[in-house]
């Protein structure tokens, strides 16, 4: 059986690639050839250029908004070629802003306030965002400072484009209908994506579609708890390769 050894890793909103460098390094130590791209590569470049990358990889992993883009990429690639890729999302909601059919998401008014705040004062809003994604960790203040120091956000224009994607993307039906293997990891202490999302995933879980809640983890677990994330990813890939 062909081993799945090539991974495309996609960052989240507002952080740049640096916070995921450690995850990339750990994946490479496990024998996976890993390409790390910023979600804004997808926004800035021709979307087809990112789809072309899909032909070269076996697994697509995305953090937060990156998980939504990963879902889009594997879905479109499958529709174009009939080939499935393994999809892994980290602290990612297929529909980030709540609606009548998917209520385990950020309330509309909360998102609207965040977006308005960003338009008024982008730097202060980013700082608050870093606070939210590390809130709940055992050393939250230290982690908040750490991610501020390592983050390399793109231009405010691209960040706003990302917020508009978070507001508009609803990939629930694509995720439900996608036939490739899936793993979705959620965080118990996530202050961006409600862990109640697990209730929805109970309804759509299949043999091919797995999900797990990481106890005591925050939204930033792909950065703060790399070894834990690696353990879950590798365990899933190993089981999938043997099945």
Structure commentary:
The longest helix has 17 residues, at 65-81. Strands 2-1-3-4-5-6 form a six-stranded parallel sheet, with helices on both faces. It is built from twelve helices and six strands. It has 243 residues and is an alpha/beta fold.
Mean pLDDT: 91
H/E topology pattern = EHEHHEHEHHHHHEHEHH
Biggest sheet, in brief? Answer: 6 strands, parallel
The proportion of strand residues reads 5-15%
Radius of gyration: 17 Å
Biggest sheet: strands side by side, in what order? 2-1-3-4-5-6
In DSSP terms, counting alpha (H) and pi (I) runs of 4 or more, how many helices? 12
Q: What would you give as the CATH superfamily?
A: Alpha/Beta hydrolase fold, catalytic domain
Structural class: alpha/beta
Q: Uncertain spans, ≥5 residues at pLDDT below 50? A: none
Q: Examine the secondary-structure arrangement and name the CATH architecture.
A: 3-Layer(aba) Sandwich
Q: Please report the total strand number as a whole number.
A: 6
Overview features:
single chain; alpha/beta; globular; Rossmann fold
Helix-strand layout with pairing:
Elements (H helix, E strand, L loop, with lengths): L5 E5 L10 H9 L3 E5 L1 H6 L2 H8 L4 E5 L1 H17 L4 E5 L17 H13 L1 H13 L5 H11 L5 H13 L3 H6 L4 E6 L9 H8 L4 E6 L6 H4 L1 H17 L1
Parallel strand pairs: 1-2, 1-3, 3-4, 4-5, 5-6
Pfam families: Abhydrolase_1
Organism: Acinetobacter oleivorans
Keywords: Hydrolase
Question: What's the quick description here?
Answer:
The protein is of the alpha/beta class and 243 residues long. It has one domain: Rossmann fold (3-Layer(aba) Sandwich). Helices cover 51% and strands 13% of the residues.
